[in-house]
Amino acid sequence: MKINYTMFGTGLTGGVRVILEIANHLVKRGHEVTITSLGRENDHKWFPLKARTIYVKRPKYILGARYVIRKYLKNHWFEAYPQAEIRKLAEATPDDIDINVATFCFTAYSVFASEKGVPFYHMQHYEPLFFDDAFLKKLAEGTYHLPLNKISNSIWLHNIMKEKYGVETPIVNPAIDHNVFYPREIEKESNKLRVIAFGKQTRWKGFPELLKAMEVVMKQRNDVEFVVYGAKKPTYESRVPYKFVQRPSDEELAQLYSSADVVVTASWYESFPLPPLEAMACGAPVVTTRYGTEDYAFHGKNALVVPPKDPKALAEAILRLLNDEDLREQFRREGPKTAKRFTWDNTVDKVEKLFKGALKG
């Protein structure tokens, strides 16, 4: 098959990683795969991509002009975003393709408008939640009404599509690389119990709630060290000290997870987030919030699952694990068992089947 993935960028994010992993595995199976994306060739250098790429470069002066107009002139007549990007991606899409896959809300319009290949929409979140601007929120919601073959990446997203729009979507879960994420023997530098978390400035990632929870934890225990990793250190004010590890490689991240006594995810909502599953694969006890983790996080069996936006519940769960060595050992056993179910071969088997079925009509 000739398959095109239409993307709004190929910089390092969990969602981008998933699409590029699928693309590589499709190439390995003999398919011709193209990534048509906004951005520049260096954007995906963090990933060993095997697919062909077509980049649509946005002139820097356009981005600067838009920023000035929006912030200072507040004149929407000059605001082309995202219309210009949608049009350019549709025009850049190869003509001779069998399958054309949208990967983000605005790329759904590009795929629909291009009329090239059988149109798919590989949904990785309920994207109206991404926007504060009411107009952009409505544009994101509008994509769920387009005549595209839709794929949900989680039970949570599948249920939203069914409840809000009456659409039954197949679920294709992402996966992790089990050659990287597995339990390691790590010699820690101190005897302190280690809590590890992903940190990002994006508000719905829940980092302020995590900081409040860690205040409670560190007031009750003085034998805890807090380690945060991410692309850029969040700027939220913190009353608790923490070490920040910037842009760890996958190998370094696996070692970090393996050294943890607790790994925490505090997001308000996710749709199959990779960090809790990666941590489980490395044998780390996990505390996570509920929305989007239903596919693999089972409260009391392989993780502790708490409501989002609740620092008190988050602190109680972290303390419960820190105080209960037997429960930590249970999660160290059960987590890798759960993680082993999620392989890229299983993911791509489902993707291939959906594509082939659509081509047969």
Automatic annotation (TrEMBL):
Gene3D superfamilies, per this entry? 3.40.50.11090, Glycogen Phosphorylase B (3.40.50.2000)
Report the protein name in the record. Answer: Glycosyl transferase family 1
Q: Which residues form a coiled coil?
A: none
Superkingdom of origin: Archaea
Organism, by scientific name, is Thermococcus celer Vu 13 = JCM 8558
Residues annotated as domain Glycosyltransferase subfamily 4-like N-terminal: 14-168
The alphabetical list of record keywords is: Transferase
UniProt-recorded Gene Ontology molecular function terms: glycosyltransferase activity
Taking every annotated instance into account, which residue ranges of this chain make up the domain Glycosyl transferase family? 184-337
Q: Which SUPFAM superfamilies is this protein grouped with?
A: UDP-Glycosyltransferase/glycogen phosphorylase
Q: Cite the Pfam families for this sequence.
A: Glyco_transf_4, Glycos_transf_1
